[in-house]
Specification:
Shape: globular
Distance between the termini: 73 Å
CATH class of the largest domain: Alpha Beta
Radius of gyration: 24 Å
Largest sheet: 6 strands, parallel
Number of strands: 18
Strand order of the largest sheet: 2-1-3-4-6-5
CATH superfamily of the largest domain: Thiamin diphosphate (ThDP)-binding fold, Pyr/PP domains
CATH topology of the largest domain: Rossmann fold
Helix content: 25-40%
Strand content: 15-25%
Number of domains: 3
């Protein structure tokens, strides 16, 4: 047995089904070992796309997605997707090939120090420099990738080490479940004491509230005590937006209606909240809010985020314990104090309905999509102006029903993500939404999805612009924009060149019929929506006028 064989046996022991990547000379031993195993290697069209698929796999399953690249340009291409997973708290293990260790000490073809390069964007990474450390390195990479908070790890396998023999007594290490600690009783007691004096508590649920059992226990807690819940972009689905306690999503770059409820609240329970996604000064500008931090890890230090108490533990357990004590003490809060704000949010979303010959807009398209899509369907958002609308205006009813990357914010992630979603659950309705800019960054992975026989809807919002940037430029400069305009191919013909269906509806009725068709058939299809972006600036001006008048 050689090192590459042991490496693949360890992947099997970790339960890995797929490795997504681009083959190279330096990882050929690993590829041949995988070919003789239960692990399927999926050749992708770009390392960046491969990493985004692995990222989505980890986000949806809670098990580390795995991606592979060779040395040099393969490793540099892979790194953006790895960083994206790390910032979005998705478990991922990246594997890169490398030249022989005998040439690391001098200038050498395609050689760069990949381990040093990956250090800032991973939880841990290493190079396997001798056969004896192979099993330990792989177990550690998978263990750290999935431990809270999840993220990316990286293993480099030099080509000469991969081909070396390894002793038969070195075998893969069996994964063991790591139980997360229960909440400290003093922290729970302090939290209950704060809740006993509160009348209008509010929950801000982040990415950590979606994972594991946290969503279920958060929902039980919020509905029993009638506590409103605002989710961050990456927390969407932590509580169903059908429930009266849901206030939708917080996190736009400007003041939105939801902030009225935050301002009225006298206690904030921040649950699984990632500050890198939405800075606390945006919702606590004076730094005077009473905050309880409930998360798997301690809070970072911010002037505007100084919790009265930090409950550092399994989030699900924290809610269970707090709920038990509040029930025992017969605690209640003001009922429905936030309902006017919720109704305002609902009415605003509905105001973007389109029909007949109305101009096509992102929020109007999302309203159509929500009407024709199953409640448990999955919408992936790319990065662009549409991301704001998806987070703000697309109701979500299940955990991971809408996935918005809002940590590293890499464009081009959503189309590859659909591949992971359909491999995990072929029967689930999946839509990947992106702008024309993001689409052209990873459109080549259409071929990968087609080759694998996967079907989902690729929704492209086309405004011939880097729309989010031009929107922010206009907000910051009283309407000016520069250096964002684009031209595009014929998207319908482009889709058909891959052998998939392409659609370009021009009216709201055509759009509805098209989306109903692609979702019902489950075909791999591209739907181009030529949008009117004027609605972006109109939203900003409307909200600015609203808050200036208060």
């Amino acid at each position: 047995m050689k090192v590459s064989d042991l490496f693949v046996k360890a992947l099997e022991k970790e339960g890995v089904k797929y490795v997504f990547g681009v083959p190279g000379e330096e990882n050929q031993d690993l590829l041949f070992s995988m070919a003789e195993s239960s692990v399927t290697f999926v050749p992708c069209r770009h390392e960046n796309g491969a990493a985004f698929i692995a990222d989505a796999w980890g986000r949806l399953t809670g098990q580390a997605g795995v991606c592979l690249a060779t040395l040099g340009p393969g490793a540099t291409n892979l790194i953006t997707g790895v960083a994206n997973a790390n910032f979005d708290k998705s478990p991922l293990v990246a594997i890169t090939g490398q030249g022989g260790i005998t040439r690391k000490h001098h200038e050498s073809h395609q050689y760069i120090d990949v381990v040093s390069m990956y250090k800032p964007v991973t939880k841990w990474n290493t190079s396997i420099t001798m056969p004896e450390i192979t099993a330990e390195s792989i177990r550690k990479a998978f263990k750290l990738a999935t431990l809270e908070k999840p993220g990316a790890t990286h293993i480099e396998l030099p080509e000469d080490v991969a081909s070396k023999p390894v002793a038969d007594d070195i075998q893969p290490i069996k994964p063991q479940r790591v139980r997360r600690a229960a909440a400290d009783y003093k922290a729970i007691r302090q939290t209950v004491e704060l809740l006993e004096t509160a009348k209008r508590p509010l929950i801000i649920a982040g990415n950590g509230a979606v994972r594991k059992l946290a969503s279920r226990h958060l929902t039980d807690f919020a509905t029993e005590f009638d506590i409103p819940v605002a989710t961050t972009f990456m927390g969407k689905g932590a509580i169903s937006d059908k429930l009266p306690q849901s206030l939708g999503t917080i996190g736009t770059g400007f003041k939105d209606y939801i902030l009225q409820a935050v301002e009225q609240a006298d206690l904030i329970l921040a649950v699984g909240y990632d500050m890198g996604e939405y800075a606390p000064e945006k919702w606590n500008p004076r730094g005077d809010k009473k905050i309880v931090h409930i998360d798997f890890v301690p809070a970072d230090v911010y002037n505007s985020y100084q919790p009265e108490v930090e409950v550092v533990c399994d989030v699900s357990d924290a809610f269970w314990q707090i709920q038990q004590k509040l029930e025992r003490n017969n605690i209640s809060f003001d009922s429905g104090w936030y309902s006017d704000v919720r109704q305002q949010i609902i009415d605003d979303i509905k105001s973007y309905d389109i029909s007949g010959d109305d101009s096509l807009t992102v929020p109007g398209t999302l309203n159509v999509l929500r009407q024709v899509m199953n409640d448990d369907g999955l919408l992936f958002s790319d990065i662009g102006s549409h991301k704001i609308w998806i987070a703000r205006n697309f109701p979500t009813y299940v955990p991971n029903g809408t996935i918005v990357g809002n940590g590293f914010c890499s464009m081009g992630a959503s189309l590859p993500a659909g591949i992971a979603a359909k491999l995990i659950d072929p029967n689930r309705q999946v839509v990947t939404a992106m702008g024309d800019g993001g689409f052209m960054m990873n459109s080549q992975e259409i071929e990968t999805a087609q080759r694998l026989g996967l079907g989902y809807t690729i929704l492209v919002f086309n405004d011939n612009d880097y729309g989010l940037i031009s929107w922010k430029q206009r907000m910051n400069t009283d309407g000016k924009e520069v250096s964002t305009r684009l031209t595009n191919p014929d998207f319908k013909a482009y889709a058909e060149s891959f052998g998939i269906a392409g659609y370009s509806p021009s009216t709201a009725d055509e759009l509805r019929d098209t989306l109903q068709h692609t979702l019902a058939t489950g075909e791999l299809a591209l739907v181009e929506v030529k949008i009117d972006p004027a609605v972006n600036q109109e939203l900003y001006e409307k909200l600015k006028t609203y808050y200036n008048s208060k």
